[in-house]
Design brief:
Order of helices and strands: EEHHEEEEEEEHEHHE
Oligomer: single chain
Number of helices: 5
Number of domains: 1
Structural class: alpha+beta
Shape: globular
Mean pLDDT: 91
Largest sheet: 6 strands, mixed
Distance between the termini: 40 Å
Number of strands: 11
Length: 202
């Protein structure tokens, strides 16, 4: 997405905010905000026309291209009900903005079918598969439930817990190794949803 080569630990970083959308005991999708580090942002802008008269047009094209590039990877957004990976409609409302030296990508990601809340089987993992890009929620407060969902649910942010062997493997990969698309999931956080009731019958 943001780099042509892959190494064993992140060389690009994104701080995330995730807004879980829905009401009446049903989740309809997510709004994402990913803030890339300054160095990655500079790399992304290299060669782009960011003159005052053309910056907005450039950013629109970049946002559309970025979303197209990650569509095949579930937009890096893996939402499970138990072991079932839920699917999405195409993302929309993509927007790239600038926060001083950092670029911020935001978009809306609707679920293919609305998902009823459950007591404790829903979990969300957001990661770039090869782990070149490290994606992080800095705290549970960066995962925001809609007002309606917040009446029934809370979120728990679980830090990754790779084994020493997995860490050693990741650190041992040479810079020119082929991408290992299992790495991202090993080193990603998990948002676990806990809901009081499931709005049965609605």
């Amino acid at each position: 997405m943001v780099a042509p080569t892959v190494q064993a630990h992140p060389h690009s970083f994104a701080d995330m905010k995730t807004y879980i959308q829905g009401k009446d005991g049903v989740i309809t999708g997510f709004k994402m905000e990913w803030t890339f580090d300054a160095m990655t942002s500079a790399y992304m802008l290299d060669g782009e026309d960011t003159s005052p008269e053309n910056e907005q047009s450039t950013f629109r094209k970049m946002a559309a291209s970025m979303l197209e590039n990650i569509q095949g990877d579930q937009y890096f957004t893996n939402f499970y009900d138990g072991d079932q990976l839920l699917q999405y409609k195409p993302a929309h409302s993509g927007q790239l903005t600038r926060d001083r030296a950092k670029l911020v990508l935001s978009f809306v990601l609707p679920l293919s079918s609305p998902q009823r809340i459950t007591p404790d089987t829903l979990r969300l993992l957001v990661f770039e598969p090869s782990f070149y890009l490290g994606m992080t929620w800095n705290s549970a407060e960066d995962v925001v439930l809609s007002d309606a969902l917040a009446r029934d649910c809370r979120v728990e942010l679980i830090e990754p817990n790779p084994t020493p062997e997995q860490v050693s493997y990741a650190m041992s990969l040479p810079a020119d190794a082929n991408p290992d698309n299992t790495l991202g999931q090993l080193f990603t956080q998990t948002v676990q949803m806990h809901c009081e009731h499931t709005a049965a019958g609605k």
